[in-house]
Structure formats: C-alpha cells, structure tokens
C-alpha cells in the first residue's frame, strides 16, 4: 500500500509541470473597441502591447474590429484575451455568457471619480443650441453596443419627451458607426446633432479631459469652438477592463498589475490607452455594472 502511494505521489509530482505547461499561453490578444479609426487605436495602444509582451514573454497582438460587436464576439469566442469595454458592451457579454470575461479595472478621472457622460453635440452654425432645436432634424447615434453612443440616450431622451423613433421627434435617427464617426458627421453637417462620450471635466475647448471629443481634438479632426453641447446624460459608470475568465491566474494577475500601474510606469501611454487625462485605473467588480445590465436587459426585451 505504501509503495502504491509513493508511486502515485511521484507520478503526480511529475505531472504537475506538464499541467502547468499545458495551461501556459502561447500568445495574448488585446481587443480595442471602436471610437476612432483603426490606425489611431493601434497607435494609442501600441505601448500597452509592448509592455504586455515584455511582461508575459509571449507575442501580444492588438485587434481593432470595425464595430463594438467584433470585440465582444472575440472575447466570447476566446480569440481575444483582454479589452476595455463600455458598460453596455460588458452587459452584452455577460448576458450572453456570464463565464466569458471578468471585469478587473476601471479608468479613474482626475478627480478620482469613475463615471462619465453621454454628451449631445451640434455645430454652432446649424442654429441648434438644445434638443428642442433638433425637432424635425437628424440625430446621430454611434454603435448599437455603445453605452453613451446609444443605450443611455435611447433610454433617457424618451423619458424627457424626445422620442428616438425615426420620424416622431427627429426627422431621422442614424447610426454613424462609432464615436469618431459621430463627431465627424456633426462637424461636417451630415447629421444635425449627435451623442458621444466625455468625462465632462476640464475645458470644452480641449474636448474635456478625456473621451471621444478629446481624442478628436488631439487628432485635429474638430475645433471645439465650432461645436456646442446641447445635452448631457446622468453620470454613467465607466466601462471595465476585462480579462477572459479562463486565462491562467498568473496571466490575469500580471495584466491587471500592468494596467493598474501604467500611470506610474508611463503617463503618456496611460493617456493614449485611457483616451485622455486620467488618474489611472482602479479595481472594479461585476457589481458596479448590475444597473447597466438591467437597463440593457429591459431594452433587449422591448426589441424582442
């Protein structure tokens, strides 16, 4: 009996390194949500890719799908290991498969808060200074899986008497494809007004401290003096950095620590990854998104 137990222990000990090797990753893939063009997304996150490659010791690649759903499906299917999702995109991932990803970090604003806003914008020279002025005109949404570019305004606007059904209050309601596309469409006069995201802190002329407007200003796409804010949502929970749940724990720990320490390691890199000025990334759990998940569940039920 003792000999059998000894052989079992020896066999188990020999198998452990093999099991560890089997769990080791061979590559790591980061999905970058839409909001700006693919090349700018790659450029903003290249520093993170390099740091991750050094930390993990395996090839790390960035993926910039054309729409939000491309990142969501990549995470659900296991072809992506990490992404910074909007709250609504996380809600969709969770409602589709609760075991697919886990939220680990959330971006903090300069004042330490972890919320942002859906911001309604229009051109000054279009004679639109409020939602009332948009009656009979064209409103632009971003992506169906965007929190600030669709979900929140599609819920809050009707509660204030502004139906988002095409032809009811607005003459038409169009999806532009993303935040950058919405901002450009408003600036070019392709739509009369649109919604995008910003932390709402700092100066309007800068596109606020962080968000799609700040990125558009940095890219030279718009002069904020040509635009006006016509609406602002209630505060929205900032979306989470998520990791695939089935990753080895040491990989999850390393990537969480890497992103959490990015503001100290490389402030310029943190600026690019966080879409503007940030105090860094804080720990977050699923509980922070339960309200958004309920809103998304209700909206999906209406459409079914």
Structure characterization notes:
The protein has 304 residues and is α/β, with parallel strands linked by helices. The chain is 42% helix and 19% strand. The strands form 2 sheets. It has a 6-stranded mixed β-sheet, sandwiched between helices. Strands 5, 6, 7, 8, 9 and 10 form a 6-stranded mixed β-sheet that branches. Helix 2 crosses helix 8 and helix 3 packs parallel to helix 4. It is globular, with a radius of gyration of 22 Å. The N and C termini lie far apart (63 Å). InterPro entries: PhnD, Phosphnate-bd.
Keywords:
304 residues; alpha/beta; six-stranded mixed beta sheet; 11 helices; 12 strands; 19% strand; disordered N terminus
**DSSP strand (E) fraction?**
15-25%
Give the uncertain stretches in residue-range form.
Answer: 1-22
List the secondary-structure elements in sequence, H or E: HEHEHEHEEEHEHEHEEEHHHEH
Give the radius of gyration: 22 Å
Helix content: 40-55%
Q: How many helices does DSSP assign?
A: 11
**Biggest β-sheet, characterized?**
6 strands, mixed
Keywords: Signal
Signal peptide: 1-20
Organism: Paracoccus aurantius
Protein name: Phosphonate ABC transporter substrate-binding protein
Indicate the topology.
Elements: H1 2-23, E1 28-31, H2 38-56, E2 60-63, H3 68-77, E3 82-84, H4 87-96, E4 101-108, E5 115-123, E6 138-141, H5 147-159, E7 172-175, H6 179-188, E8 193-198, H7 212-218, E9 227-232, E10 236-237, E11 240-244, H8 249-260, H9 262-265, H10 267-273, E12 280-283, H11 290-303
Parallel strand pairs: 1-2, 1-3, 6-7, 6-8
Antiparallel strand pairs: 3-11, 4-11, 4-12, 5-8, 5-9, 5-10
């Amino acid at each position: 009996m003792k000999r059998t137990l000894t052989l079992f222990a020896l066999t188990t000990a020999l198998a452990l390194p093999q099991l560890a090797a089997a769990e080791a990753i061979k590559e790591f893939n980061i999905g970058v949500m839409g909001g700006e063009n693919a090349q700018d997304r790659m450029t903003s996150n290249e520093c993170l890719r390099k740091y991750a490659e050094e930390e993990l010791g395996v090839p790390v690649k960035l993926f910039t799908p054309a729409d939000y759903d491309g990142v969501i499906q990549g995470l659900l299917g296991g072809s992506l290991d990490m992404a910074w999702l909007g709250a609504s995109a996380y809600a969709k991932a969770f409602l589709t498969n609760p075991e697919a990803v886990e939220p680990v970090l959330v971006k903090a604003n300069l004042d330490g808060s972890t919320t942002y806003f859906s911001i309604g914008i229009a051109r000054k020279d279009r004679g639109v200074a409020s939602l009332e002025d948009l009656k009979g005109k064209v409103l632009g949404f971003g992506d169906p899986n965007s929190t600030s570019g669709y979900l929140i305004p599609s819920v809050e606007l009707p509660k204030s008497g502004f139906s988002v059904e095409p032809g009811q209050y607005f003459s038409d309601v169009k999806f532009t494809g993303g935040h950058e596309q919405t901002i450009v469409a408003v600036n070019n006069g392709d739509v009369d007004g649109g919604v995008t995201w910003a932390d709402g802190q700092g100066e309007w002329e800068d596109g606020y401290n962080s968000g799609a407007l700040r990125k558009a200003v940095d890219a030279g796409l718009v002069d904020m003096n040509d635009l006006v804010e016509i609406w602002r949502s209630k505060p929205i929970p900032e979306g989470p950095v998520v990791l695939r749940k089935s990753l080895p724990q040491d990989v999850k720990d390393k990537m969480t620590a890497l992103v959490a320490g990015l503001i100290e390691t490389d402030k310029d890199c943190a600026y690019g990854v966080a879409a503007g000025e940030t105090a860094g990334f804080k720990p977050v759990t699923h509980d922070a998104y339960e309200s958004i998940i309920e809103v998304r569940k209700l909206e999906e039920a209406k459409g079914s």
